[in-house]
Structure formats: structure tokens, C-alpha cells
């Protein structure tokens, strides 16, 4: 069994829709941590985050839920503004404030089997930070933040600077179909996975929405089905929920396919409600077995 340390900024999010404006906490590390905490506490887990003093309420709530959180101080908290029109698939995103990036000093002394880097913006984790952590444990990366560059307040999609240097140190990476194409230049999931593996990644996880997911590891592909939700309520944090379920199972020694199916089932359950994953491992396992009730 390996213990897991998630590193990433908690955000404060402003969600604007034609009907209302809502303020809430978010970010990769936020959704990942709540999902992980909903599972049986068989894998030791810690979140290391970085935010401004004025936003510590989010941390207090997480600790109250039983999540082990360490805080590194920042001048600001990452502040996202997401504005939706009548078409919910069309979003304008701005970053009103940025938190300080993680430094080697921030992660010095951490001890874990797996470090999951929940990047939100391109400069969150420098190559030096990844290199330091790779000498202490396995590296898992959610790639989305490495593809976001902030200019002024506007978010621009970019290729991943220093990707070859960082990917050579990466044991597990999760990308969606858009991210894999930006990083590899390939639109075919199998081809993209092979290219990422060629750059040094040991386990490549490609999530494909309703088409399921694809895992490439040890020279083999594993096709993971998607489980149909009863209804789609909120997709925010689904990728982070997948990562939590996958790493949880892998830390316990599960194989790639088993871990992928469990993670996919967690995503389906997450889709059916607002906010972070709050269901149980038993419900996810029942969904995998096709024994869902109620």
C-alpha cells in the first residue's frame, strides 16, 4: 500500500449564469480530496494546499470533514470567474487573482508514496519542484493546469512548457481528449497514449467522457467503459473524482482495469449531484457489477 499526498491550490470560484451568481470553493485539489475522503480510510491521505489567509474557511470545513490539510501561505488565493450564457457548454473564464506557485521549500520534508499534482495554472509546479518530489515518491499529474496561461485576467490555452522534462519524471498522467491533443498533437487516443509513454510516462490515463476511458501501461491498452448516469446534474470535478478513485485503487494494489472501472463508476455517481463526490465505495462497486438499486 502507498500513501498519497495531493498538492494543489484551493480556489474561490465565482459562477455567473443568466439566473444567478454563486460563490464557492473549488479546484483540482478540492474535488480530489473530498472524493478521496469519501472512500474507506485504508490509504493514508494528505492535502497540501496554498491560499490566502482570508480564505481559510474552506480549509476549516475540509478539516471538519476529516481531511488532513496542510497549508502553505500565499499572498492571494486563486480566484476564478466562470461566466455562462444560455448555452452551458459555452464559458468565459477569467482569473481575477493568482496564488503563489509551489516552491521546493513548500514541499521540502514531505513523505509519501504517491504525489498527485493538481495543477490549475501553467506555473503552479516548476520542473524543479517535480524533480524534487520524484526523488521521494511516484509522480501523478493532472495535466489541465499546465495548459492554462494567464495574461492579465484572461486565460489562454497553451502547449505545456517543459513538458518533456516533466513527463520524463511522471509515473501516472491523466488527460482528457482535448488535453491529449494539445500535448501530443494527436487526436487518436491510442496514438496519444503511446506518445506520452514514449516520453517516459509509465501509466497513461485518457478520459473520453461518455466514451469511457483508456489506460496504457506495461505495453498494454485497457479499455474502460463509461457507466450511464441517471441524470447529469454537475460535471465539475469529474476528472478529479476519477483521479481519486484510480489512485486509491492503485495504492491498494489493484490492477489497471479494476482501478479504471472503479474510477469511472465514481465519475458517474458524481455527475448526478452538485458539489464534490459524496457517495460510497460500495455504491461505485455495485455500479461496476451492474447491481445498482433504487
From TrEMBL:
<comment type="similarity">
    <text>Belongs to the carbohydrate kinase PfkB family.</text>
</comment>
<dbReference type="GO" id="GO:0016301">
    <property type="term" value="F:kinase activity"/>
</dbReference>
<dbReference type="InterPro" id="IPR029056">
    <property type="entry name" value="Ribokinase-like"/>
</dbReference>
<keyword id="KW-0808">Transferase</keyword>
<dbReference type="InterPro" id="IPR011611">
    <property type="entry name" value="PfkB_dom"/>
</dbReference>
<keyword id="KW-0418">Kinase</keyword>
<dbReference type="InterPro" id="IPR050306">
    <property type="entry name" value="PfkB_Carbo_kinase"/>
</dbReference>
<feature type="domain" description="Carbohydrate kinase PfkB">
    <location>
        <begin position="143"/>
        <end position="275"/>
    </location>
</feature>
<dbReference type="Pfam" id="PF00294">
    <property type="entry name" value="PfkB"/>
</dbReference>
<protein>
    <submittedName>
        <fullName>PfkB family carbohydrate kinase</fullName>
    </submittedName>
</protein>
Amino acid at each position: 500500500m502507498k500513501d498519497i499526498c495531493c498538492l494543489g491550490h484551493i480556489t474561490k470560484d465565482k459562477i455567473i449564469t443568466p439566473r444567478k451568481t454563486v460563490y464557492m470553493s473549488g479546484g483540482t485539489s478540492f474535488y480530489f480530496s473530498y472524493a478521496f475522503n469519501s472512500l474507506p480510510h485504508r490509504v493514508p491521505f494528505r492535502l497540501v494546499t496554498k491560499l490566502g489567509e482570508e480564505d481559510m474557511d474552506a480549509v476549516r470545513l475540509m478539516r471538519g470533514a476529516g481531511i488532513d490539510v496542510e497549508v502553505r501561505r500565499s499572498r492571494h488565493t486563486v480566484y476564478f470567474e466562470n461566466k455562462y450564457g444560455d448555452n452551458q457548454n459555452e464559458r468565459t473564464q477569467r482569473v481575477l487573482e493568482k496564488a503563489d506557485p509551489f516552491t521546493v521549500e513548500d514541499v521540502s520534508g514531505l513523505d509519501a508514496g504517491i504525489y498527485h499534482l493538481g495543477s490549475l495554472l501553467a506555473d503552479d509546479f516548476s520542473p524543479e519542484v517535480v524533480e524534487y518530489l520524484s526523488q521521494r515518491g511516484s509522480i501523478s499529474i493532472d495535466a489541465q493546469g499546465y495548459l492554462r496561461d494567464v495574461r492579465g485576467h484572461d486565460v489562454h490555452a497553451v502547449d505545456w512548457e517543459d513538458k518533456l522534462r516533466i513527463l520524463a519524471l511522471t509515473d501516472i498522467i491523466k488527460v482528457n481528449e482535448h488535453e491529449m491533443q494539445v500535448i501530443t498533437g494527436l487526436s487518436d487516443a491510442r496514438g496519444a497514449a503511446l506518445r506520452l509513454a514514449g516520453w517516459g510516462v509509465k501509466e497513461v490515463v485518457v478520459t473520453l467522457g461518455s466514451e469511457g476511458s483508456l489506460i496504457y501501461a506495461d505495453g498494454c491498452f485497457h479499455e474502460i467503459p463509461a457507466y450511464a448516469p441517471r441524470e447529469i446534474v454537475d460535471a465539475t470535478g469529474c476528472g478529479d473524482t476519477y483521479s481519486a478513485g484510480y489512485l486509491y485503487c492503485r495504492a491498494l494494489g489493484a490492477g489497471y482495469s479494476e482501478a479504471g472501472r472503479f474510477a469511472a463508476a465514481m465519475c458517474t455517481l458524481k455527475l448526478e449531484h452538485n458539489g464534490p463526490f459524496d457517495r460510497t465505495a460500495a455504491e461505485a462497486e455495485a455500479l461496476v457489477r451492474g447491481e445498482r438499486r433504487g
